[in-house]
Amino acid sequence: MFRHNLVVIYRNFLRYKASFFINLTGLSIGLACTLFIYLWIQSEVNVDRFHEHEGQLVQVMENVDYTDEIVTRPETPDLLAEALVDEYPEIAYGAPMTHPELFGKFTLSISKDNALKAAGSFTGKDYFKMFSFDLLHGDRNNVLDDKKAIVISESLANKLFGTTDNVVGKSIDWNLPFYESQSQVSGIFKDLPESSTESFDFMVPFDVFKDLSDALGRKLHWDNHAPYTYLMLKDGKSFDDLNGKVTNFIKARERESNVSLFLHRYADNYLHGNFENGKQTGGRIEYVQLFAIIAFFILLMACINFMNLSTAKASRRVTEVGVKKAIGADRRMLISQYLSESFIMTTVAFVLSLVVVYLLLPSFNYITGKELSLALNGSFFLYALAIIAVTSFLAGSYPAFYLSGFNPAIVLKGNFDTSSLGGQFARKGLVLFQFMLSIILIVSVLVVYKQIEFVQTQNLGYDKDNIVYFNKEGALAGNSEAFHNELRKIPGIKAASGIGEKIIGATSSTGGVEWEGKNPDEDVNFTNVVADYGLMETLGMEMKDGRSFAKEYGAEENKIIFNETAIDIMNLDNPVGKRITLLGEEKEIIGVVKDFHFESFYESVKPLFVQFNPEQSFMTMAKIEAGREKQAIASIEQLYRKFNPGFPFEFSFLDEDFQAQYVAEQRVASLSRYFALLAILISCLGLFGLAAFTTERRMKEIGIRKVLGASDVGIFYLLSKDFTKVVLFASVIALPISYFAIRSWLNGFAYRIDLKLWFFIVALLAALIIAWMTVASHALRAAKSDPVECIRT
Predict the structure, then answer these.
(1) Is the alpha carbon torsion for 182, 188, 192, 198 positive or negative?
(2) High-pLDDT (> 70) share of the chain, %
(3) Is the pLDDT confidence value at 494 over 70?
(4) pLDDT for 422
(5) Four-point Cα dihedral 85, 86, 89, 94, nearest 10
(6) Reduced to 3 states, what is the DSSP secondary structure of residue 776?
(7) C-alpha distances in angstroms, 47 versus 94, 177, 370, 381, 777?
(8) Nearest 5°: phi and psi at 315?
(9) Is 277 helix (H, G, I), strand (E, B) or coil?
(10) Crossing angle between the packed helical segments 17-45 and 331-368, to the nearest 10 degrees
(11) Measured distance CA(110)–CA(116) in Å, rounded
(12) Which residue has the higher pLDDT, 653 or 666?
């Protein structure tokens, strides 16, 4: 039977080459898209799931209850991890860990001539007992026990020492802008895998962070929130039970605290990392779900082509069906034959799709920013079998069950009405479905593009272009005023100042602001920006009222500037000159800065204040004249090395930080464009095949019409009007669906574009033009044909 089916398929290939290639191409494209998305989804869902104790790892999160909202944050009190382990016997281990972004990159060196930058964390001693990062050297049970220990990555060891052998025990000096120390290598870990969300190059014991806090005058207290807190539960202990127990852990120690704790599974952070008003609201899982749906529909569109073309050419096979039934073939045998045809076609298409994926995978990796590979392992073969089985059944089921149901007596007598074969309504319905999906994808791609364009061109309230920033450390940290004075003299430098941390994604905040008329029950969270003289001018910020910090006014330490949102929330009229209390210190409001976006456009502008503190302005920001960036950077580096010999000069541009906030959206937009184009191509392939079939069936009619005086335009209209109606009807269904779907996505942005009517008109016109262009070659050839030859066919 199988051999017979192969022979039948081969003969059909020879007879219907166009249909065969259209089906093969459409299925191959659809399967290749599905394979790409499968690889991407596999990578996404396996992030952070390689740890041996993955099911027992949790992160402690905070819900901070302010008057107008509940803010969820990962930062927790310094004392929390140790206290939780002591309090609850169901916890095996706990470890605090400062995020590498907290301090920026450290400067590490083993000699004056060998200094480099690396990202580091202060971490609890049990960290490597909890997380399964591979250690090349060192014992994970005690590698962080010694206060003078440092654990470094394989890459960092090679950069510093040129090898990973005999490195344990060697000394490394490390520096921050306000602190320096020396540690001895106690271990080396393998470079972190791509499937990990962690991003550190080395680790230092958390006890050193306590010393650093003391040096800064920062007390270890339940009100100070800096590190992340990770826990590992003992085997068999309930996550939900412990989650309920820790809720009021901080409030039990600080009665006036507005912080509640909850547990979040560590492996869920990547895909389920968004919180709104204290509730988990999604995250990257939404993109995973989106592309899973896109993969399904693209494959379904390819299957629809197979169904349509198989049923459309059914009139050519009715005699075959009739003869087989007349000599004893039952319906099950015929169904088996047609499903076998579909299975073999799908298998060949799958093999071709593997070749396509193999060739295009480097480009796909570039678009997605991943390092995906086509691993032909057991799980992949299970996926391959499943997708081939499902695809072949979807593609072959309708023609198999339809063709096998013909009445042999009617067929062999020649009384079968071939004009209705396959059900024209069914075929048009499937084409309608294809174009409905295409229109939805066109609208989605267009709106996503316009939203990202809006985000990138919107006025942020400051000038992000040509702003370079870098850390002040070593000798420079204590001599920044002289450095800034020299920096401003460099040709091409328009302005320079100091700031406490990166302006984009600023995280320092406090609720300790009191003002006249404040409701005692009101608790407002203010973002805290630390500044030096000239910061507003360097960033091009505008003052709505008052002034910025300036030397001519003398000491500015007891002065403060708020943004517009803060003043509105505080309900202060004529705020300049009024006094507030910040953490027990009285300060005078000297200005109101216009609102600026220090977070992504997903978030509305939060209340913020700027306070003057050059000593804690650990970063320098400089505005460079456009077109002189290269020369200015070289001069800045030369000046930096003069003030800070032995320290490497590393810098970043502010506009790059801004773009980094939307990397996920930009990649999704790029992928969506490619998949939308492929979906449209698959639709066109099917439409092309149906147009060819329709034209062939109506050649006699076309010849008669031409003899009776029909024009070429009339013939073109005759052949294209049915497809035009299908596209128009598809748009009636697709446009409302696309409107609600894309509006739901836009609602995730606090600042977004309006949905314009022209977005939907463009999508409709694009679909119509695509349909007309697809059928045009057949319609024009029919219109130009010789009516005599048409009638003879």
Answers:
(1) negative
(2) 85
(3) yes
(4) 45
(5) 10
(6) helix
(7) 21, 33, 12, 22, 49
(8) -60, -25
(9) coil
(10) 50
(11) 10
(12) 653
For helices 699-707 and 757-783, the axis angle rounded to 10 degrees is: 80
Distance CA 304, CA 310 (A): 10
155 by Cβ neighbours in 10 Å (0-12 / 13-18 / 19+) ranks as: middle
Residue 640: closest CA among 493, 463, 462, 465: 493
- Report pLDDT digits (tens) over 305-324: 777 766 655 555 555 655 56
> What DSSP state is assigned to residue 551?
G
**Cα–Cα distance, 116 to 645 (Å, whole number):** 13
Does the pLDDT value for residue 246 go beyond 90? yes
Pairing of strands 115-118, 106-109: antiparallel
Q: Residues 6 or more apart from 53 whose CB is under 8 A from it?
A: 130, 132, 232
User: Collapsing DSSP states into helix, strand and coil, what is residue 56?
Assistant: helix
Over 90: is that where the pLDDT of 153 sits? Answer: yes
Give bridge partners of residue 57 from the DSSP assignment: 232
> b/e per residue, 319-345, with b = 16+ CB within 10 A?
ebbbebbeeebeeeebbbbbbbbbbbb
> Global pTM?
0.82
* Average pLDDT, rounded, for the chain: 83
Q: Are 620 and 460 in contact (CB under 8 A)?
A: no
CB atoms within 10 A of CB 355: 11
Beta bridge partners of 513: 582
User: Which DSSP helix (H) or strand (E) runs through 156?
Assistant: helix 154-161
In this prediction, residues 258-273 reach a mean pLDDT of 92
Q: What are phi and psi of 626, to 5 degrees?
A: -60, 135
Stated length of the chain: 793
Q: Compute the distance between CA of residue 658 and CA of residue 467 in angstroms, rounded to an integer.
A: 11
For residue 190, the number of C-alpha atoms closer than 13 Å in the C-beta half-sphere is: 9
> What is the model's pLDDT at position 421?
44
The answer for 266, left when phi > 0, alpha when psi is -120 to 50, beta otherwise, is alpha
**3-class DSSP assignment, residue 43:** helix
pLDDT at 471: 87
540: three-class secondary structure by DSSP: coil
C-alpha distances out from residue 69 to 423, 456, 595, 607, Å: 58, 28, 19, 13
